[in-house]
Description:
285 residues, alpha/beta, two-stranded antiparallel sheet, 12 strands, 34% helix, 19% strand
Amino acid sequence: MPNHDFCGSDRFFFVKGFLYVATGPRFIAEACASARRVKQLMAEVPIALASDVKPENNLFAHWTPIENPHGTFADKIAPLAKTPFAQTVFLDTDTYLCEPVPELFELLDRCDIAMAHAPMRVTGSVPVPASFPECNSGVVAYNINERTRSLFSNWEKFYAEQLASTGQPDDQPALRRALWESNARLAILPPEYNFRFALPSFAGRGPVRILHGRHPALDALAAEINQSRSPRVFLPQLRDVGHRCFRILSAPGRAAGFWFGLDALCAKWIGKVWDGLRAKSGRSS
Protein backbone atom coordinates (compact mmCIF):
# COMPACT_ATOMS: atom_id res chain seq x y z
CA MET A 1 0.00 0.00 0.00
CA PRO A 2 1.42 3.43 -0.88
CA ASN A 3 2.28 5.75 1.93
CA HIS A 4 0.27 8.67 0.59
CA ASP A 5 -3.15 7.34 -0.32
CA PHE A 6 -5.61 9.70 1.33
CA CYS A 7 -6.23 13.36 1.99
CA GLY A 8 -7.35 15.27 5.01
CA SER A 9 -9.94 18.00 4.92
CA ASP A 10 -7.43 20.80 4.61
CA ARG A 11 -4.11 19.29 3.53
CA PHE A 12 -2.52 16.22 2.10
CA PHE A 13 -1.78 13.42 4.55
CA PHE A 14 0.73 10.60 4.40
CA VAL A 15 -0.25 7.36 6.10
CA LYS A 16 2.78 7.26 8.40
CA GLY A 17 6.13 8.92 8.88
CA PHE A 18 8.74 10.42 11.15
CA LEU A 19 8.61 14.03 12.35
CA TYR A 20 11.35 16.35 13.62
CA VAL A 21 10.99 19.86 15.03
CA ALA A 22 13.99 22.19 15.09
CA THR A 23 14.70 25.91 15.29
CA GLY A 24 18.09 27.49 14.70
CA PRO A 25 20.94 26.20 12.53
CA ARG A 26 22.50 23.98 15.22
CA PHE A 27 19.35 22.00 15.90
CA ILE A 28 18.37 21.83 12.22
CA ALA A 29 21.78 20.33 11.44
CA GLU A 30 21.31 17.85 14.29
CA ALA A 31 17.85 16.92 12.96
CA CYS A 32 19.34 16.30 9.52
CA ALA A 33 21.99 14.00 10.99
CA SER A 34 19.36 12.00 12.87
CA ALA A 35 17.10 11.87 9.80
CA ARG A 36 19.91 10.48 7.65
CA ARG A 37 20.13 7.52 9.99
CA VAL A 38 16.35 7.02 9.81
CA LYS A 39 16.49 7.11 6.01
CA GLN A 40 19.36 4.62 6.05
CA LEU A 41 17.33 2.10 8.08
CA MET A 42 13.76 2.85 6.94
CA ALA A 43 14.06 4.41 3.50
CA GLU A 44 10.45 3.61 2.60
CA VAL A 45 9.03 5.80 5.40
CA PRO A 46 8.86 9.55 4.71
CA ILE A 47 10.30 12.12 7.10
CA ALA A 48 8.91 15.58 7.84
CA LEU A 49 10.51 18.62 9.44
CA ALA A 50 9.00 21.65 11.14
CA SER A 51 11.58 24.43 11.40
CA ASP A 52 12.14 28.16 11.08
CA VAL A 53 14.47 27.69 8.10
CA LYS A 54 13.98 25.18 5.29
CA PRO A 55 17.08 22.99 4.89
CA GLU A 56 18.63 22.68 1.46
CA ASN A 57 18.55 18.90 1.12
CA ASN A 58 16.18 16.15 0.02
CA LEU A 59 15.89 14.39 3.37
CA PHE A 60 12.39 15.59 4.12
CA ALA A 61 9.22 14.74 2.22
CA HIS A 62 7.33 17.56 3.92
CA TRP A 63 8.31 20.85 5.55
CA THR A 64 6.22 22.93 7.95
CA PRO A 65 7.46 26.47 8.65
CA ILE A 66 7.73 27.71 12.23
CA GLU A 67 7.18 31.45 12.25
CA ASN A 68 8.50 33.62 15.07
CA PRO A 69 9.95 30.83 17.22
CA HIS A 70 10.04 31.46 20.98
CA GLY A 71 13.21 29.52 21.71
CA THR A 72 11.35 27.36 24.25
CA PHE A 73 9.75 23.92 24.17
CA ALA A 74 6.57 25.66 22.99
CA ASP A 75 8.16 25.61 19.52
CA LYS A 76 8.17 21.81 19.71
CA ILE A 77 4.62 21.25 20.99
CA ALA A 78 2.56 23.17 18.42
CA PRO A 79 3.87 21.39 15.28
CA LEU A 80 2.90 17.98 16.67
CA ALA A 81 -0.77 18.68 15.83
CA LYS A 82 0.24 19.87 12.34
CA THR A 83 1.88 16.60 11.36
CA PRO A 84 1.34 15.56 7.72
CA PHE A 85 1.00 11.94 8.84
CA ALA A 86 -1.96 9.99 10.16
CA GLN A 87 0.49 7.97 12.25
CA THR A 88 3.57 9.84 13.44
CA VAL A 89 6.75 8.93 15.25
CA PHE A 90 8.18 12.19 16.56
CA LEU A 91 11.90 12.14 17.31
CA ASP A 92 13.98 14.74 19.11
CA THR A 93 16.93 15.99 17.10
CA ASP A 94 19.38 14.20 19.43
CA THR A 95 18.06 10.70 18.72
CA TYR A 96 19.77 7.85 16.88
CA LEU A 97 18.05 4.79 15.47
CA CYS A 98 20.00 1.63 16.22
CA GLU A 99 17.53 -0.60 14.39
CA PRO A 100 14.35 -0.17 12.32
CA VAL A 101 11.22 0.49 14.40
CA PRO A 102 8.16 -0.43 12.27
CA GLU A 103 6.55 -1.84 15.41
CA LEU A 104 6.02 1.69 16.73
CA PHE A 105 3.53 2.29 13.94
CA GLU A 106 1.91 -1.11 14.59
CA LEU A 107 1.35 -0.06 18.21
CA LEU A 108 -0.77 2.85 17.00
CA ASP A 109 -3.42 0.41 15.77
CA ARG A 110 -4.25 -0.18 19.45
CA CYS A 111 -3.55 3.16 21.16
CA ASP A 112 -3.54 6.90 20.51
CA ILE A 113 -0.11 7.81 21.81
CA ALA A 114 2.99 6.02 23.13
CA MET A 115 5.96 7.32 25.12
CA ALA A 116 8.57 6.04 27.56
CA HIS A 117 8.75 7.12 31.18
CA ALA A 118 11.23 9.88 31.92
CA PRO A 119 14.27 8.50 33.78
CA MET A 120 13.98 11.18 36.49
CA ARG A 121 10.23 10.36 36.83
CA VAL A 122 9.33 13.81 38.22
CA THR A 123 10.95 17.20 37.52
CA GLY A 124 8.14 19.57 38.49
CA SER A 125 5.11 19.75 40.73
CA VAL A 126 1.70 19.26 39.10
CA PRO A 127 -1.65 18.05 40.51
CA VAL A 128 -1.10 14.44 39.46
CA PRO A 129 -0.62 11.29 41.61
CA ALA A 130 2.97 10.23 42.23
CA SER A 131 2.10 6.88 40.68
CA PHE A 132 1.67 8.65 37.30
CA PRO A 133 5.18 9.90 36.50
CA GLU A 134 6.39 12.06 33.65
CA CYS A 135 6.92 10.70 30.18
CA ASN A 136 9.95 11.74 28.16
CA SER A 137 8.89 13.82 25.17
CA GLY A 138 11.87 12.94 22.96
CA VAL A 139 10.20 9.93 21.31
CA VAL A 140 6.44 10.13 20.78
CA ALA A 141 4.40 7.80 18.58
CA TYR A 142 0.84 9.00 18.02
CA ASN A 143 -2.23 9.02 15.85
CA ILE A 144 -3.60 12.38 14.91
CA ASN A 145 -7.21 12.54 16.06
CA GLU A 146 -9.43 14.66 18.29
CA ARG A 147 -8.06 13.07 21.46
CA THR A 148 -4.42 13.77 20.62
CA ARG A 149 -5.20 17.23 19.26
CA SER A 150 -6.86 18.07 22.58
CA LEU A 151 -3.91 16.58 24.45
CA PHE A 152 -1.40 18.70 22.53
CA SER A 153 -3.54 21.81 23.00
CA ASN A 154 -3.66 21.29 26.76
CA TRP A 155 0.06 20.51 26.88
CA GLU A 156 0.76 23.81 25.14
CA LYS A 157 -1.62 25.69 27.47
CA PHE A 158 -0.24 24.11 30.65
CA TYR A 159 3.31 24.79 29.48
CA ALA A 160 2.53 28.48 28.92
CA GLU A 161 1.01 28.65 32.42
CA GLN A 162 4.08 26.93 33.85
CA LEU A 163 6.45 29.40 32.20
CA ALA A 164 4.40 32.33 33.45
CA SER A 165 4.08 31.07 37.02
CA THR A 166 7.39 29.35 37.77
CA GLY A 167 9.63 29.98 34.79
CA GLN A 168 10.56 26.30 34.64
CA PRO A 169 11.58 25.62 31.01
CA ASP A 170 11.13 21.82 31.03
CA ASP A 171 8.07 20.75 29.05
CA GLN A 172 7.52 17.40 30.75
CA PRO A 173 5.64 18.53 33.91
CA ALA A 174 3.03 20.17 31.66
CA LEU A 175 2.93 17.04 29.50
CA ARG A 176 2.37 14.92 32.61
CA ARG A 177 -0.64 16.97 33.60
CA ALA A 178 -2.00 16.99 30.05
CA LEU A 179 -1.73 13.21 29.82
CA TRP A 180 -3.41 12.76 33.19
CA GLU A 181 -6.36 14.91 32.15
CA SER A 182 -6.59 13.43 28.66
CA ASN A 183 -8.87 10.69 27.35
CA ALA A 184 -6.22 9.62 24.83
CA ARG A 185 -5.26 5.95 25.08
CA LEU A 186 -1.66 5.95 26.34
CA ALA A 187 0.85 3.12 25.90
CA ILE A 188 4.17 3.16 27.76
CA LEU A 189 7.22 2.28 25.70
CA PRO A 190 10.06 0.34 27.32
CA PRO A 191 13.33 2.26 27.76
CA GLU A 192 14.86 0.48 24.76
CA TYR A 193 12.83 2.85 22.57
CA ASN A 194 14.09 5.98 24.32
CA PHE A 195 17.41 5.04 25.86
CA ARG A 196 18.70 8.00 27.88
CA PHE A 197 22.31 6.87 28.04
CA ALA A 198 23.57 9.97 29.87
CA LEU A 199 22.08 8.38 33.00
CA PRO A 200 22.50 4.85 34.37
CA SER A 201 20.03 2.86 32.27
CA PHE A 202 18.59 -0.64 32.13
CA ALA A 203 17.97 -2.54 28.91
CA GLY A 204 16.06 -5.80 28.83
CA ARG A 205 16.47 -8.83 26.59
CA GLY A 206 17.03 -7.74 22.99
CA PRO A 207 18.44 -4.63 21.34
CA VAL A 208 18.18 -1.00 22.31
CA ARG A 209 16.42 0.54 19.33
CA ILE A 210 16.59 4.30 19.86
CA LEU A 211 19.37 6.20 21.62
CA HIS A 212 18.47 9.61 23.03
CA GLY A 213 21.28 12.00 23.89
CA ARG A 214 24.43 13.56 22.54
CA HIS A 215 27.63 11.62 22.04
CA PRO A 216 30.63 12.08 19.72
CA ALA A 217 30.33 8.52 18.30
CA LEU A 218 26.73 7.31 18.42
CA ASP A 219 27.38 4.39 16.09
CA ALA A 220 30.13 3.05 18.36
CA LEU A 221 27.98 3.64 21.44
CA ALA A 222 25.09 1.73 19.86
CA ALA A 223 27.43 -1.18 19.09
CA GLU A 224 28.71 -1.16 22.67
CA ILE A 225 25.25 -1.12 24.22
CA ASN A 226 23.93 -3.81 21.89
CA GLN A 227 26.93 -6.13 21.96
CA SER A 228 24.87 -8.09 24.47
CA ARG A 229 21.20 -8.92 23.99
CA SER A 230 20.77 -10.09 27.59
CA PRO A 231 19.32 -7.89 30.35
CA ARG A 232 21.98 -5.32 31.18
CA VAL A 233 22.73 -2.07 32.95
CA PHE A 234 24.57 0.68 31.10
CA LEU A 235 26.71 3.01 33.22
CA PRO A 236 27.89 6.10 31.31
CA GLN A 237 31.35 7.53 31.73
CA LEU A 238 31.49 11.22 32.53
CA ARG A 239 33.86 11.87 29.68
CA ASP A 240 31.15 10.65 27.30
CA VAL A 241 28.68 13.26 28.53
CA GLY A 242 31.16 16.08 28.91
CA HIS A 243 31.12 19.60 27.55
CA ARG A 244 31.58 18.58 23.91
CA CYS A 245 28.13 16.95 24.06
CA PHE A 246 26.55 20.13 25.46
CA ARG A 247 27.97 22.70 23.03
CA ILE A 248 24.75 22.75 20.99
CA LEU A 249 22.69 23.90 23.98
CA SER A 250 21.87 27.35 25.29
CA ALA A 251 24.12 29.09 27.81
CA PRO A 252 22.77 27.25 30.93
CA GLY A 253 23.13 23.89 29.18
CA ARG A 254 26.66 24.69 28.06
CA ALA A 255 27.53 25.76 31.61
CA ALA A 256 26.29 22.43 32.97
CA GLY A 257 28.26 20.65 30.28
CA PHE A 258 31.39 22.60 31.20
CA TRP A 259 31.24 21.32 34.78
CA PHE A 260 30.54 17.78 33.61
CA GLY A 261 33.54 18.03 31.32
CA LEU A 262 35.77 19.56 34.00
CA ASP A 263 34.78 16.79 36.42
CA ALA A 264 35.57 14.16 33.78
CA LEU A 265 38.92 15.81 32.97
CA CYS A 266 39.92 15.94 36.65
CA ALA A 267 38.92 12.31 37.15
CA LYS A 268 40.95 11.29 34.10
CA TRP A 269 44.01 13.29 35.26
CA ILE A 270 43.82 11.92 38.80
CA GLY A 271 43.53 8.42 37.37
CA LYS A 272 46.66 8.91 35.27
CA VAL A 273 48.59 10.29 38.24
CA TRP A 274 47.47 7.39 40.42
CA ASP A 275 48.42 4.85 37.75
CA GLY A 276 51.83 6.50 37.42
CA LEU A 277 52.42 6.38 41.18
CA ARG A 278 51.42 2.72 41.28
CA ALA A 279 53.75 1.90 38.41
CA LYS A 280 56.61 3.78 40.06
CA SER A 281 55.96 2.03 43.37
CA GLY A 282 56.01 -1.33 41.59
CA ARG A 283 59.36 -0.62 39.94
CA SER A 284 60.96 0.56 43.20
CA SER A 285 59.90 -2.57 45.04
